[in-house]
Specification:
Strand order of the largest sheet: 12-13-10-20-17-18-19
CATH superfamily of the largest domain: Aldehyde oxidase/xanthine dehydrogenase, molybdopterin binding domain
Number of strands: 31
Shape: globular
Strand content: 15-25%
Helix content: 25-40%
Structural class: alpha+beta
CATH topology of the largest domain: Aldehyde Oxidoreductase, domain 4
Radius of gyration: 27 Å
CATH architecture of the largest domain: 2-Layer Sandwich
CATH class of the largest domain: Alpha Beta
Number of helices: 21
Length: 804
Amino acid sequence: MEAQDPAAPAAPAAPPAPTPSAAPPAPEAPTPPRGIGRRRFLGYVLAAPTLTVAARIGEDALAPAPAAAAVPAAAPGVVPSLPGPAEILDLNDLLTVAALPTANLITIRLDPDGTAHFALPRAEVGQGITTSTAMIIAEELDLPLDRVRVTLADARPELLFNQLTGGSNTTISTFTPVRVAAAVARGRLLRAAALQLGAAVDTLSTEAGVVTSATGARLTYGELAVKAAAVTDTQVSVTLKDPGRFRLIGTAQRRIDALDAVTGRKRFALDVQVPGALPTMVCRPPTINGTVRSVENLSEVAAMPGITDVVTVSTGVAVRGRTFGQCVDAVRALKVTWGPGTAEGASDATVLQKLRRAELPLVVPPLDLLTKAVDARFTFHFASNSALETNCAVADVRPGSAEIWASLKSPIVAQEKIALQLGLPVSAVKVHVTEGGGSFGRKLFHDAAGEAAEISRAMGKPVRLMWHRTDDFRQGRTHPMATSRVRATYALGEVLTYEQRHTSVATDFGHGVGEIITSEAAKLPVADLTFSETMFQLTQSSPYHFGVTTQLLNEVDHGFNTGSMRNIYSPNVRCAQELVVDELARRMGQDALAFRRRFLKDDRARAVLDKVAEIGRWGRPMAAGTAQGIAVHPEYHSVVAVLAEIDCRPETTGRKIRDAYTGPRVTKVVCAVDVGLAVNPRGLEAQMMGGIIDGIALTLTSSLHLQDGRFLESSWDNYFYTRQWNTPPELEIVVMPSTGDEPGGAGELAVAAASAAVACAYGRATGAMPTVFPVNHGAPLSFTPAPTVPPIPASPTDGRDRAL
C-alpha cells in the first residue's frame, strides 16, 4: 500500500450498529423489480409422435432494466456517480439476449409414461441447475417434481450462443423459455383432454400430472401425451402462471440427484463405458507448457506391464495401460528431454514487476490542502482453478469420425475445434456432455477433451484420459495474478472521486461466448485485450455513489494457462474496493456500516447489509485480535452482503497441524442474499456456502507460488484451500424475500463479498490494511515442493499413517 497518511492510528473499535429506527427511510419510489408480468408469449407444438413443445421468445422478453431504474439517485449531500456499463447492460444481459434467437430449438417432450424430458443445453457441475430447471418445468406444467427428467444435451452447433454455461447465466437465460415451453405443453394437454371429455377447456384444471373436469373425470398426462401430439409444427400463444400461484418455485427442495451422488450412482466422464477405452495419462513437462524434444526409453516403457501404447503428443508423452496405476508407473519411468515452456524463469517477483510496469495511470491530479486521498495498491497472487474432479475425457477417434465424452461448459467450441484439429467436418464429431465434479470456470475449456482426441487419433484406439492431480495444479488453469491500484479522494465528509486500475496477467477467453467465431476472435493479437476489457466493463461496477468513478483494466503476459475462475475479476476488484471503503470510513471518522449505507446506490444492497448487521450484531464488543468485517457485492441483478468475524490472536494463528497452514480463523459468517426470485432457496444457500468458503481461501490461505517457470504446489495437500479447521463454526445464510418475479445470477455471487468481508475483518483485527493476498503468501512454505521430474508422485501404497 502507498498511503498518504502513514502515521494514521490503527482502526478504532467499531461503534454500535445503528438501530432499525435510526436507519434512513427508504425512497418513496423504490426500484421497480425486473419481471415479465402477464404478457403473452408464443410457443410451438412440434410435429412428433408424442407431445413435444418449444418456446419462441421475442427480443424484448428479457430486456435489461433501464439505467435510470438500475441506479437510483444519490442520498442528499452525496456526490452521485454515473452508472457504469455493467449497470446498464451486464455480461449476463448480453448472454441472455444472445440466447433468445435459438430458444425455439430447445424442447420439452412429454412421454407416454407421463414424465417430462428436457435436455438442458448447459453443464451441471454441482451447482444444482438440473434441480432448479426441473422445478421450473414442474411448476409451469403442474407436474410432480419426480416426474421431470433433466439430462444434459450433446453439443448442438445450431444453438450458437445458447449452450454456454458461465456468468451465473443458466437460470436467468432459460427461465422464461423453459416456462413458455412448459406452458405450451400444459395448454396442449388441456386441449386434448377437452376433446376427449367433451368439456370446455376453461372448465378443466391440472394438478400433479392429471387433468380433472368439473364433473370429476380424470385423465393423466401419460394418457394424453400421444393424443396431444401434432403432425405439423403449430404456433400457439400462452400466458404464464402468475407468480402468486407458484407452489414449487421458491420452496426449498433437495437436489434431484442427491441420492445418486451419495450412493455413487452418478455418472461422470470416467464412468462412461466405451468398448476398448483404456486408462490413459500424460507425462508432462517440468515447466509451464514445455515441449518434448526427445524420449530416451519409449520402447522400454511400452514393454512395461499392462502398457499398450506410448506416443508423443503436443502436450507431452501419452501412455495407455490396463489400469491407471500402471499408467502412473509408466509416466514416472519415462526419460524425456524437454524444450522450454512459455514462462521460463518466471517467478512471483518477475510477474509482479511486469504488472507494475503495465499499470494504467491514475488521473486525479495532486490535491490541495482541503482534499485528502486514500491511495493503495493491492497484489493478488495466482490461484489454482482445479476442481475436485481432475481434467478427464473419453475419446474414440476413428477414420472419418470421432466421439467425445467430457464435462464441458462450452461444448460447441469443443466440437468445432476438435473437428478442425482432426481435419473432420463438424457433423462427424459427436460431443457428449457429462456431469462434472466441479468446475468454477475450469470446464469452460476443453483441454482434456482436445488432448484425448489427439491421443486417440495417434494411437488409433479409444482412450480414457485422466490428468493427475499434480498435472492440474502445475499445468492446469489458474486465476491470474493481478494488482489493483485504487485512489479515492474525499473532502468535507464526501467522496469526490474513485479510481481503480486493475492490472492482470492475461485471462484466457478462448472459449469465447460459446462458439468458434468469438472463440477465435478472443485470441487475436489485437482483440485479446479488447475482449478482456469488454468482459471487465460488463462485469465490474461500483455499488457506491463515489463521485467521478472509473474502473479500468490492463493485461500483460500471455505465458500462463488462465481462466475465468469464480467471478473472473470480481473477487480481486471488490476486495480492493471494500478495503478502501473501510479506510475512507476510518479517516472520515464514520462507522464502516453507516458509511456504506449512506453511499450505496441501491435499496436492495442496503437491505442485505442491514440484515447481516442485525443478525451478526455489527459493532458488538470483541476481544483484542478479533474483529468483524462487512462487505456488499452486486452482480447480475442480484446482491449479497457478508459479515465475517475473524480470530487473529497468536494462540489461533499459531495452531500446529501436520503439513498444514492454519493461520487466522474465520469464526463466524452471516450472509444475506437477494436474487430477485430464488427458484430453489436450498440450492441458493448451498451456492452461497461454497462461495463463502472460496472467498475465505482466496483471502487467507490459497495461492500458487511461481518459481523458475513452474508452480510449487502439486496437490490439495499443499494448496491450502479452506480446511475444516479454518471454516467458520457459525455460518448463517439468509435468503431475502423475493424482490421480483425473475431470478438473478447466483453461481459466483458470494465469492467476492466473502473475500472482501474477511479481508476487512483481518485489517480491523490486526490494525493494518492487508494489501497482499492471500495474506499467508509470503510466509515460509509449510511443505516441501514435490519434484518436477518425474512429473507426478508415485501411487500411494499405504495411507494409514495419514489417518493418525
